[in-house]
Amino acid sequence: MVNTRKVVIVGAGHVGSHVALALIQSGEADDIVLIDILKEKAQGQAMDLDDGVSGALCGNDAQIRAGGYEELNDADILVMAFGRSRKPGETRLDMFDDSIRMAQEVISHLKQVDFKGIMLSISNPADIICEYIRRQMGWERNRCFCTGTSLETYRLLRVLSHRTGYARRSIQGMCMGEHGNSSFIVWSQVYVGGKPFAALMAEKPDLAALSLDDLQTEVKRAGDIEIDGKGCTEFGIANAACMIISAIFHDQKLVWPCSTALFGEYGEENVAAGVPCVIGKDGMEGVVEVALTEEEQKKFHDSCDILRSFLDRAEGL
What we know:
By secondary structure, the protein is of the alpha/beta class. It has 10 helices and 14 strands.
């Protein structure tokens, strides 16, 4: 019997709908269900996306519909995409109170169903909301993690490609820590075609003129620019989610920065933060510990301290 790849998405807004679209266009899901507190919105999005199945000409006859939480009883993957868009001038952490209230509502529904699959969370503040839900549900960390610094990493590849001229697929690198203002580029692990970026900078005068601090600022500011310009971000994070879901369905053992609960890795506990993870059929199958410089390790600890303080606050509610 052929298994149906079923994905349930909670939140039918900009992000949730684009995750569904990415799954349809890539052919990575057979059955997609949208859940939203505004049922008519979920129904409208599902119908519009269903029209897109015909127009995509991708050869994938995915089913897309609106539904309720009972759909989770036989779902493979749950995507958390609930929440409002970030406002201009607002950080993701500023969304904490509103998002926790929404998370509590979602948790009340989750406790009434028998979901056995893997949860991938996007809802901001991403690291905190995902770990809060995981703790409240008592789930193992492998089956409950979030996109973390995926989007920062995409932005790093874009910025470096634009500033250096090298193709994005030739650049290897990542960001770690919070999906937010305390994230940081792990410069010691940035390579171009397998060569350390620092070595390239030492060899090429045009690259030596680049400021790492300016590049870091450009990566961090990208989300703010997008929010100021269009009121939300949607395309990049949707494709990141689709990539991770594909890695699960195909058991790719993809090494990619996601946010997961830490149990001693990188010297951290009682917190969830963005680190390189192995993604396969069982979800987040392990953390890859790379060698950080002393400065990078401090940045990671500082970021974790911020996240831990908000998690403690959430636990006290």
